[in-house]
Amino acid sequence: MNVITAIRPFAAELPPPLKSFPDPLDPDQPDDKLVFVTQRGLVRLALTAAEAGGRFARDGLNVDPMSWMLSPLRVFEGRTAMEACLEHKHCLRSVLMHGLSLGVDVDPLALDDLLADNDGEQARGKKKSKSSGANNGDSPLIFYAGQPRLYTAMICFKDDQHIINAFHAVITREPKNIHGHLVGRYGANAASEARIRLGFFPADPMVLALVPNVLSEIIRKFEVDNDFQRHENFTVDIEHRIAK
């Protein structure tokens, strides 16, 4: 059975945010709770907040991202996203839930089953990346392989010869092939700097700078209609190159 079809979101309403968190706009206090966290954990937290805010805006959900971050949720086993998503397991759950647009809370076991089904493919991708010495663009988004989805990639790269700003959008079943396309078009060094994401983010500064409004509306319509099968293999490449 396809695990994706078995995932059902819980009710769209959030439980009340916990009251114990201090006001972030108040000055620091001597008795403020100390939290020890790695740099990787902070990056996971930033990713979680960015994915949540972008997804709620993209899907037109009347959900406050800050309230979602501070509310105890079943997907995080009763913890808040702010606390749980410092950890690898919960960060992956969050990225997957928002990528699949599954409400604001889901059964964590269903997400874990989907993640487990793709562990082998992800491990093979990492092994290949290490052996070649290149960044192949693999990320938690690789879990969506097998069904047509809209992916976008952005490159902001400079070396001694060129400055390259580029945008790529594609509807594909094989997100792992995106990196190869970027290597063929821009070279391995520039492709290693690519940000590859599931979905389209029209408010991203790179999108605003590179993508014409008319084209942005077309891509957004594909995403809203969610009819990726009919538009499979749709591809857009936009680039600005400056020779030094």
What this model shows, in words?
- The structure is a single chain.
- This protein is α+β, with helices and mostly antiparallel strands and 244 residues long.
- It is 42% helix and 14% strand.
- It contains eleven helices and four strands.
- A four-stranded antiparallel sheet has the order 3-1-2-4, with helices on both faces.
- A hairpin with a 3-residue loop joins strand 1 (149-158) and strand 2 (162-172).
- Helix 2 runs parallel beside helix 5 (88-99).
- It is globular and about 55 Å long.
- The termini are far apart.
- The model is unreliable at 1-8, 120-124 and 127-143 (pLDDT under 50).
- Helices, by number, come to 11
**Quaternary organisation:** single chain
The total count of strands amounts to 4
**Sheet of most strands:** 4 strands, antiparallel
- List the secondary-structure elements in sequence, H or E: HHHHHHHEEHHEHHE
Task: Identify the overall geometry.
Answer: globular
Strand content: 5-15%
Order the strands across the largest sheet as they lie in space.
3-1-2-4
Unreliable residue stretches: 1-8, 120-124, 127-143
Q: What's the gyration radius in Å?
A: 19 Å
| Helical proportion, percent range | 40-55%
The mean pLDDT is: 79
Distance between the termini: 54 Å
Structural class: alpha+beta
